[in-house]
């Protein structure tokens, strides 16, 4: 049996629930869950609470109460079978009398694995891999990058003009885009555990790099602010050093070393907001997983480019990306993309035409 229409609708809702808590759950995955009663009616929903809090399934079960009996749990990640800071979700589903469990992504870790097997052993019907790619490219993506590659996922965000300039010839870049796009950047920051710039951006723009709401107030939860400053050029007066959020000044020799440092601090999703120098360093290292471009309908004709030299000379070797989303933000356009390969410019060139991944 494949998933029913009600289950697919519940899975779409579960993905939304996961996205709503992205940025608050690291190092744990941002999971969403919906409980359907035996007749297919939604009777409970949940999403991963901050570390130490309840898992998505347990919250959905609590909302559903007795109506979970004979019903279906729809979850973006396979229910865990281990007792961490909270009890195993597979046991909670069995105890509530759930008859069927529909899962997008099978649990990839040994530690938490075995949930599906445990459920099947007591007669629960389990469907794995339902709309798996959508869940993997959504709220679970960063956590999965951590499991598979032992590093945080990197989202490179850049605001540019139609001719691909991020700053004018005089270095000014405030503001390339309008207020709607800038508000979207604050929402994007809120989904990340750390925001990274290079010393070039910190010195030129002196950004504060905090998450602010529509009224300009600091959000209660702030990502770690990171400045890559190997030569110690950042002045003590820099706004990024104020007490609005924690800040790390790193002298890591390269992007991978920085990501290792951040991973050890439980960071799973990084927003790269640096200038063209740092963007090129991350792209050359194959360490960009998602790209968010805010394109302003303006022309400058001169000024800093979106990205510095990538060592590419022929069009056939272009670093190729796949468009995953297109949204109008006021007068600007947001384009979301993913490099078609993770493995760096050279390998992308070698495997010209390859798709998928992500
Ligand atoms: N429109 C936009 O979205 C946007 C966003 C950001 C910046 N900008 C503009 O971009 C310009 C600044 O560009 P930028 O390229 O100088 O900024 P950047 O990429 O943020 O900073 C570059 C600096 O980062 C440091 N760095 C540390 N680790 C590095 C590594 N592994 N590889 C390369 N560099 C590393 C280097 O200084 P050390 O060697 O001292 O460490 C380097 O000079 C400004 O005009 C700013 O307004 C625009």
From TrEMBL:
It comes from the Bacteria. PROSITE patterns: CYT_DCMP_DEAMINASES_1 (PS00903), CYT_DCMP_DEAMINASES_2 (PS51747). Its cofactor is Zn(2+). The active site is at residue 57. It catalyses: 5-amino-6-(5-phospho-D-ribitylamino)uracil + NADP(+) = 5-amino-6-(5-phospho-D-ribosylamino)uracil + NADPH + H(+); 2,5-diamino-6-hydroxy-4-(5-phosphoribosylamino)-pyrimidine + H2O + H(+) = 5-amino-6-(5-phospho-D-ribosylamino)uracil + NH4(+). One of its GO terms (molecular function) is 5-amino-6-(5-phosphoribosylamino)uracil reductase activity. Pathway: Cofactor biosynthesis; riboflavin biosynthesis; 5-amino-6-(D-ribitylamino)uracil from GTP: step 3/4; Cofactor biosynthesis; riboflavin biosynthesis; 5-amino-6-(D-ribitylamino)uracil from GTP: step 2/4. Residues 5-127 form the CMP/dCMP-type deaminase domain. Zn(2+) binds at residues 55, 80, 89. GO terms for biological process: riboflavin biosynthetic process. Keywords: Hydrolase, Metal-binding, Multifunctional enzyme, NADP, Oxidoreductase, Riboflavin biosynthesis, Zinc. Its EC number is 3.5.4.26, 1.1.1.193. Binds 1 zinc ion. Signal peptide: none annotated. Pfam families: dCMP_cyt_deam_1, RibD_C. NADP(+) binds at residues 159, 175, 201, 205, 275-281. Gene3D superfamilies: Cytidine Deaminase, domain 2 (3.40.140.10), Dihydrofolate Reductase, subunit A (3.40.430.10). Substrate binds at residues 173, 189, 209, 212, 273. Converts 2,5-diamino-6-(ribosylamino)-4(3h)-pyrimidinone 5'-phosphate into 5-amino-6-(ribosylamino)-2,4(1h,3h)-pyrimidinedione 5'-phosphate. In the N-terminal section; belongs to the cytidine and deoxycytidylate deaminase family. In the C-terminal section; belongs to the HTP reductase family. This is Riboflavin biosynthesis protein RibD. It comes from Geodermatophilus africanus.
